[in-house]
């Protein structure tokens, strides 16, 4: 399931700790040695993610020239809006009441979507597993993030997002966007107008702490409503882009391997509690907060899924010359790339001596370590736990799970995307016919 470029980069990189690709317009340094990653991360102000984000604002999201000037001001300073935002997000998305609140909302949505898979007569329901997962996770995630005025409640907004998402890179690179990407541009403008309505309707006031604080921070930097709406499209990319494919791969790995399925189920059954409701009906309940500390097999499966399927390149821009580790000259104006597949498959880092935490790049690292990692891990593990406890899932075609190819994965994707969907039959388990109750973190304290 590795792409051609993965294989080439691993072959070439094997000989050097870092190597240079001289492209016609830019010099690119590929960080091959895992030991060099902390050195790159320490230089986060000058080997920086900020100019990449500032440029994406203009090229991909259509931020105004005035807004772009604000984004590009003082690129190395905490007064820059991009630099200043990440610590705020890391604080509000850390374990605590606001995170619990997001997980709780996501769990409510997921419970309702799974209820729709259960038929009273016990007959199976047929779904396309990727399509279904992508939609349900998008709804759960955006409801949790954007709150009750979530624009994604409108199917046309989800559909515009699906048109825009795979075209992120072509929008970023093309100087002739109306000619090369007319549909993506139209979708982006539709999303921008939906988010303008969201902002004018005071959407952030009832949203997660993530959106509330990010919005307040950006307002304090003087951006217009039109630019603020475009940042919400950027937030959509950060929050939806990876969660749905991760949830799908985790479902795929758990259900396609009877040993893993058996072990995960046994671990979860152990955590479930039985009770009788006032009418004497049996109810089974699972406290979702236990999944973080007591579901080590499922947690390991998530981590391994991320290790094997994430493909993000983590691109940085050199704002100044820098001599990395006193040895390797990084020239101003060059790009630095820390490719996940390279580090996630390094035998040096993942060999027999046990794994190296620096080599796990699925959530990035250093200053730009993903602030959404606690939320997405809690949401995805809850989603898979609910499915595994309530349903059996089997492919319709020949009853066999066949590993999908991923050759058509868009270049900007953070995870491999299956080329073909898999049609499956979902059947409520014998013991799933009783009531399941999933208790969310922090429930009762709201
Ligand atoms: C499985 C799910 C996710 C994965 C694998 C993931 C991965 C990443 C990675 C690798 C980065 C660093 C990018 C870089 O340094 O180049 C990042 C940044 C970030 N992530 Fe996540 N993420 C996930 C889910 C989320 C969620 C659910 C949220 C918010 C609710 C979120 C919010 C962010 C933000 C705000 C950043 C900072 C930069 C940006 O806007 O892209 N992420 N994420």
What summary fits the major beta sheet? 5 strands, mixed
Q: What spatial order of strands do you see in the largest sheet?
A: 1-2-10-7-3
Mean pLDDT: 91
CATH class of the largest domain: Mainly Alpha
How would you classify the helix and strand content by structural class? alpha+beta
Percent of residues in helices: 40-55%
Give the domain tally. 2
Going by CATH, the homologous superfamily of the largest domain would be Cytochrome P450
The portion of residues forming beta strands comes to 5-15%
Supply the number of helical segments.
20
Q: What is the terminal-to-terminal distance?
A: 44 Å
Annotation, overall tally of beta strands:
13
Shape: globular
Describe, in short, the structure shown.
With about 450 residues, the protein is of the alpha+beta class. The chain has two domains: about 1-80 and about 315-360, no CATH class; about 80-310 and about 360-440, Orthogonal Bundle (Cytochrome p450). The protein contains 20 helices and 13 strands.
